[in-house]
Amino acid sequence: MASGGGGTKPRTPQAESAPEGPVPVIVMGLGFIGQEIARAALQSEEVEVIGAVDRSPSLAGRTLTEVLGLPAGTFKVQPTLSQAVGRRKGVVLLHATGSRLEQVADQLLEALSHGMHVVSTCEELAFPWFHHPKLAQKLERAAERSGTALLGTGINPGFVMDRLVATLGQVCGPVRHAKVTRMVDAAQRRPALQRKVGAGLTEEEFFRLVDQEGLGHLGLVESAALCALGLGLDCDDYEEELTPVFAEEDITSGAWPVKKGRVAGIHQVAVALAEGQERVRLELTLAVGVDGAGDEVEVDAEPKVRLSIPGGLPGDRATANLVVHAAPRLAAADAGLLTVLELPAGR
Description:
Layout: E1 23-28, H1 32-43, E2 47-53, H2 64-68, H3 81-85, E3 92-95, H4 101-113, E4 117-120, H5 133-146, E5 149-152, H6 163-168, E6 177-185, H7 191-196, H8 203-211, H9 220-230, E7 237-246, E8 263-274, E9 277-287, E10 294-300, E11 305-310, H10 315-331, E12 336-337
Helix pairs in contact: 1-10, 4-5
């Protein structure tokens, strides 16, 4: 699959300090990632969990303590956001209900209408001007009207393949090219992710689901756009490709067995080009039983920079921590739709 175009949104980076005292937060979406976010928030001294929202009948009405199996207060999980926030002001919503912006936009707009800041794991929100410029403008205007800030973040997009690269680029002169390689053993991740990368499918089943946009990692091209912007590269075209990784032997380490010759996962590439010349290349492999898991960043500039993280950053818990750490920064930011490039570098 391929994508072209994209947009940029130059803004002045936020330089304001975080509010004094813990920032009140509400967690919305108590799936696997939402529960990870709730646990991370409960461990943080910078935020105070005051509520939770999930429309699932199996969760709504239960206490967050019951859902998580650890002390989390006596308040109950509410089915609607308005019931959870009430009249409380200055609340940050930690949002984890979906990856596609069009599917969660109404939830984001509702939160903004309540005067809430929003940190979301929605991958397309990380750089929404690329695929959804009109919706990005609508969210921008809503945030400015309510005097609140809105951000999409996570391990990727949000850190490894964009913000981390931009940070490394600070020590360089003009950047000629940047390459990021992330290899993840999906067997060590949640079953839902293993389904998302097609583990166990035949090649025919894999490409049928790709055509239906039912497989693959959302947000890679958004990371490429953020990476280029953060490195000062004026890119005018973007391309993306998704191919299967096949099991070379029977794999039993995942949530279900994958037979030799069947799909073990995905290899996804996004590139950013300037006048036909490749300037950014992001390569993501998500597959069960992958060898050599890890993250690697190479910045071709003066000086050249290379960073290697053996084993790679743990996606689920890292995403939860990134969301929680962003909350007090967002509460201190100017109103509007932000990107991770505008967050302060430190905690």
